[in-house]
Structures are given as structure tokens and as C-alpha cells.
Amino acid sequence: MIGRIGVSPQLLLGFSLGVLLSASYGKIWSILCRLGRERDDDGFERRPIQMTSEVATTFKKDIRIGVEGLIGCTPLMKIKSLSEATGCEILAKVEMMNPGGSAKDRIALAIVERAEAEGLLRPNSGDVVYEGTSGSTGISLAMICRAKGYRAHICLPDDTSAEKVDLLEKLGAEVEKVPPASIVDRRQYVNRARARANERNSDESIEGRGLFADQFENEANWKAHYDHTGPEIYKQTGGQVDIIVMGAGTGGTISGVSRYLKPLLPNLKVVLADPPGSGLYNKVKYGVMFDIKEREGTRRRHQVDTLVEGIGINRVTRNFDVGRRLVDDAIRVTDEEALAMAKFLVEHDGLFVGSSTAVNCVAAAKYALKTGPGHTIVTMICDSGTRHLSKFWKAVGPISGELGTSSLEDILDFSSTTASTSRASTPING
């Protein structure tokens, strides 16, 4: 056949080899490039450019929907200075990395979504969420309400830090300031918020309904931490946690986390961090809700006698009560210790935290020194110090230009700790 068309076998063989080599050249060159990366004249590696469609087939999309999609899954960090000084691994859940800047984002979203599911809130219908709060929950609610089509009306003590009030107003919340008062006083900020919601609902001429968020008694609070915060801690630590140290305002965080972790970790110790003027310390330690500052004439303010905002209370809320039996111990933290710890964390770790976080860290360090080295302790960074500049941080004072000059011995009152606290004099690397 070949002879008939006048093509020699040698010519046909050469043509076939040429076609074969041309077809496989690209494949061969690709293999050679992978084995020895092609480099340009300056020695830099040349990499092929991938088109967007190729990337999309290689990597799974990770897109959050709205600000509510950013809430939770916060990182767990090791606080180096406290870990080195105590011999324990002191870890902190960095809740200030939520979009609203605090742990309260979790409960704000849970409360609103529960109300929506029960038909108590309807987006873009004029509905208003009312809450009494010393700041952070209000900020989280104001953010969530704007994102989901509601308005927020926040009642708070008139000595709340100016930064929190400014944030609320910038988020479009209506802010109502009231004098600090006992919960039995109808003018107290929580009671005022409840009354405002009732007033709206009783007036049929007003468009939109009112929802009292009721963070102290609403069980969506502790359940948010049971469903999310607790599981996150368990996963991030690989289930290796010895001690949980947390403050309590509503009590939802410590209850939800404890109720999730205790069945999984039977030897886990749960420790309450409590500021001055709060009765929870004595409730946990002695079963009596009382503080020495409750005596007539000893208070500077009506609710809780401390510079600390966000934790400390003089009643047992429903959210605290559901986990109270799981709280094993309590640590009292003075304002002076909290102020010193806030300064210490900036100087040693570059951590600029709020007042409740400072209380948590003092309590974590105290308990670490009490129990001895080798334990894993988890606490919480609730929010940033930027919300506390005009009140708490004003009392902290200037930060030294020197690096790492202080030690835990400069902060803690060791009268209630064991002899193991001598470890606190160990220098800390700045």
C-alpha cells in the first residue's frame, strides 16, 4: 500500500516520530519543570498562573453570610507571660474578635433568632428590641438588630463608660441612661427596659412590637454557650482542660460552658472570678448571697461597688442558676489587682483588654499558683480595652516604656494562696 502511493517507509517513520514528539513535548516539559523549577535570570522561581476557574475547582469556598455569620469560632490563645510565671498553660478564648467586639455577640444573636422562631420579631416591620445592659450586650444587640431589620433601645447605668455609649449611638441604638440602682428598684436599668417594652406593646397606635431581650433570665443565653462556646473550647484544646476560670454577670457563659464540658471532663474544675461588691463569690463559697459592701453606708454606687463592668451581680439569675451546682470554687479579685493585671498584660504580651478580662486573668493566675504547675487553664478575653478608656483604663494610669519589668508578685495578694506562690517571683521574658 505504501509503495502504491509512492511514500517510502523511511519517510513515513520520520513523519510519525515527529507527530509523536510534538504531541508529547508539552507533557514532557511540564514534568521537567516540576522536577527542576524553571528560574528566571535573577534566580527566582517561575510559577504557572492559575485562572480563577482552576482555583475554584481546587479550593472549597468559605464565605460567611452577613455579620451574624462572623460570630463564634474565635481563636484560643496561650497567654505567654502568665503561663511562664505560673508553670501552667493559661489559655484564653479571644471573644473580642467577634464582629461586635465581645462575647455578647453570641447571646445577642441567639436571643434575636429565638424570638424570630417564636414569631415575636418580624424583620423590617418596626419591631424594637429593648434591653438593660452595662454596655457590651447592648452593642451586640444594636449590631444584630441593624443587620436583621430591627431597632434597638438600650437602658444603661449613667456611669457606663463613654466609649460604650458612643458605640451604641453610632450603631443607631436609642440610649436611655438611668442612675445605678438595686434590682428591686423599678428605675433600675433592667426594669426600665422591661417597662419600655411593655409600654410599646400596650399602645396599639404605635407601629411595631417591643421585645424585652431579658439577657439575665432568657435561657437562649446559656444555651448559646452550650451549643457553641463549650464545643469550641473542647475541640481547640483536644479535650485537654483541667480548669475553667470565668466571671459572671448574667451567668450564661460559665453555665453554658460548664454544662457542656463537665460531662465530657468529669475532673474539670470550674472557678468563678468575681469583682468587689458582687455576692456571687459568697454564694459559691458559702451558699449565701452577701458581700461586706452590702452593709448600709459602705457603697460608692448602688449596684456593684467596683470599676469593673460586665461581671458581678447581687442576685442569682436563671442563667447562673442552671450551672451553679457545677461551679467548684470562686476567687475574689480586687480593683487594684485588676488594674495592675491590665497594665501587666500590655507590658508583657501587648494585650489591651477590658476590665472583666483583667479580673479573669487575675483569677486564672491565682488559681494556677494555688494548684501548682502542669495544669491547663482556660479563661476568656471578653472585650478590648478600647471600650474602657474613660473609666477603667483612666484609673490604670500610664504604661511604662520599659519592657517586662514587673512580675505577678507586683499584682497579686498572696494571702489566700499556698506556699507555691513563691513561683511568682520568677522573672518573665518581656
Looking at the structure, what is the overall shape? globular
Q: Please report the number of helical segments.
A: 14
Summarize the amount of helix as a percent range: 25-40%
The biggest beta sheet, please? 6 strands, mixed
Order of strands across the widest beta sheet? 1-2-10-7-8-9
Explain what the structure shows:
The chain is of the alpha/beta class. The longest helix is centred in the N-terminal third of the chain and has 27 residues, at 9-35. The radius of gyration is 30 Å and the shape is globular. Helix 4 crosses helix 5. The chain has a six-stranded mixed sheet, sandwiched between helices. A four-stranded parallel sheet has the order 5-4-3-6, sandwiched between helices. The termini are far apart. It is built from 14 helices and ten strands. 40% of the residues lie in helices and 12% in strands.
Give the SSE map.
Elements (H helix, E strand, L loop, with lengths): L8 H27 L16 H7 L17 E3 L1 H7 L2 E6 L9 H14 L10 E5 L3 H13 L2 E7 L4 H9 L3 E5 L10 H14 L7 E3 L7 H18 L5 E5 L4 H13 L4 E6 L5 H7 L31 H4 L7 E4 L2 H15 L5 H17 L4 E6 L10 H5 L34
Parallel strand pairs: 2-10, 3-4, 3-6, 4-5, 7-8, 7-10, 8-9
Antiparallel strand pairs: 1-2
Tag the structure with descriptive keywords.
430 residues; alpha/beta; 6-stranded mixed beta sheet; 4-stranded parallel beta sheet; globular; disordered C terminus
